[in-house]
Design goal:
Strand order of the largest sheet: 2-1-3-4
CATH topology of the largest domain: Rossmann fold
CATH architecture of the largest domain: 3-Layer(aba) Sandwich
Helix content: 25-40%
Number of helices: 5
Shape: globular
Largest sheet: 4 strands, parallel
Radius of gyration: 17 Å
Distance between the termini: 29 Å
Number of strands: 7
């Protein structure tokens, strides 16, 4: 599976790529030398809005809108979106999520969520909790439209 490193102007896209299950490092420094070293060492594709990053092979995203950016990446890299990997990474830390026993999170999520959901996941790094809420369907619907070319509908 493709791994990415995104420059600091693409924070929303980094979050979306993580939601889609891609290992995505969000690089917020201006030190391009370190970015290139990290990309080479980790075998990551650099994604940026900058027109030139030394002589590295990069994917330059031309659009500003995150939905259009997703579509651009899918087209340029021939990405395949695997729904089974969606919501498998922390959108903040990029760490793979771990399933957690429901009893462990009692009192740590709203009561309605605790009662209505059966499966919960935790980021091992930041301890953020995740569950399959309404956002799951919303993301799938947005993605379906984006991949069909209906970016703004």
């Amino acid at each position: 599976m493709v791994k990415f490193i995104l420059t600091k102007e693409l924070g929303r896209l980094a979050r979306w790529l993580r939601i889609l299950g891609f290992d995505t490092y969000y690089y917020t420094s201006d030190n391009m030398g370190t970015l290139i070293i990290y990309a080479l060492r980790e075998n990551r594709v650099i994604v940026t809005r900058r027109k030139r990053v030394d002589d590295m092979k990069v994917v330059v995203v031309e659009t500003n809108d995150v939905r259009s950016q997703i579509r651009e990446l899918v087209e340029k890299l021939k990405l395949k979106i695997d729904e089974s990997l969606m919501f498998s990474r922390c959108v903040i830390c990029n760490e793979p999520l771990e399933k957690v026993d429901k009893e462990e999170i009692r009192g740590k999520v709203p009561e309605y969520v605790y009662i209505s959901q059966q499966e919960f996941y935790r980021c091992p790094s930041c301890q953020r909790l995740y569950w399959q809420g309404s956002h799951w369907g919303n993301v799938k619907e947005i993605l379906k439209k984006v991949l069909a070319g209906n970016v703004y509908s």
